[in-house]
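Let's sit down with a protein and look at its sequence and fold side by side. Which protein we use is up to you, so please pick one and set it down. Label the sequence line and the structure token line clearly, so we can match residues to local backbone shapes. Go ahead whenever you are ready, and we will take it from there:

***
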Amino acid sequence: MKEKILVISNQTKDGKLFEQILGSKGFDIVTKPVFEGIEDVLLKDNFGAILADYDQVGDLACNWINLLQENRSQSCVILYGENKKAEKISEILQAGVYGFISRSTISKHLYETILGGIENRKAFIEILGMIKMLKNVNESIEKEKEDLRKKNQELSFINRLSTEVAYDVNWSLILPRILNAGFLDVMNPAVLGMLYRIGSKWKIAFHLSEKEINKEIVDRLKENMINKFSSISGEKVSIKDTDFHLYSSGIKISSADTIPFSEQIIMPLSIAGSTLGILAILPKDNEKLNDEKMELLTTISNILAMSLKNAQEYHQLKEMSVKDGLTGILNRKGFQNFIQKEFHRAKRYHRPLSLIMIDVDGFKKINDSLGHQAGDFVLRELACSLKQSIRQADIVFRYGGDEFVILLPDTDIEQAKMLLKRVLSDVEKHAFDWESNHMNVKISCGISSTSELENHEDEKDLISKADTRLYSAKRSQDLKYCLA
């Protein structure tokens, strides 16, 4: 019997598109518009999945989720529509929606999302079946509800962790980010540790739940992590060559035996058969983790491995890129390497990418009146000011002549505007003093972001939008930067 898929959309073309993609895969597509009483349709047939246009149904989807769950429906809900911010997607996922597909990637991701949603729903149905079987035993029901609460808590954490670190290329504070995602809500070990490398430098980071720990335990855990990594990867790592960071306030490392050295659990951070690092936990009070907790740790390790690979590739590209001889920052060739990679990464993970184009106002006049050495001085000082203004994951390039570019990964247009205000303020305060001449250096800027692009556009269009806005700003004496 064919699996039924319900499509809820006022656009006829959507139903035809899903029929084209899923009909050949053996699915029976039923298309309905959004109308009063659609809830009855949701419950009438046993749909394997319900596909709804989020741009049209909005928060009605959350009401449907509650209705389906109350009636023990076997349908999973998947939303699609125009790109949404990560916070909004996380919100609707936590409400019970299985997945969100941006309209631009429907052809690519629809089939695999449908399969995953149906499998996910089957697992949920099994849980409901267990609850039903045990409904006459009050004590068992309470236990089942608690287990389900913990499972939902774990799924919520996985969603937050994915949003927090999957796209992250700045691993300098990776452990605090894991904790912020809610790690301690689902897994509360005595010690959480990570071993990883960015560039040529190895790092070990720990978080401790207690206020004091034995130095010998810290050293043993470090050594075990390194030995485990070496045994898996065949690569030798020296403890003395690693940077150690302890992300716990008020912790003392002493000779006291405040935390017993239980059997530590060490998980490799591996992707495509390559081990990139180690995740380790020291359970409290020799606690034995059950299969569910071990499965959760495996999922966490896979997410972190993907994030670490992104961070390592990002750093490698940054190191390989050619630097500008005058300013010491990356040059136009380096920019081309980065913009291509970051644009494709942003598109793949549905994350924002923004760009700021910068041009020095009246630069020719500086060269003509004070000489080219003064002009070179201005470019070097401006590069220095820009580097000090940006965040660690941002990159500044010399695009050519007196033009600069700042690339802002994982940054939407509003965040880019906030950073640009800091850039403008810092440049205004910077002392451009050449010999006995104080130069009042001003810059014009243009911003663009991937959220503005159409489906067919690429990184060249992102650059073109920022460049056009830059010259719009230059034509206006009162405008320091331009957005449209």
Q: What stands out?
A: The CA atoms of residues 211 and 249 lie 8 Å apart. The longest strand covers residues 274-282.
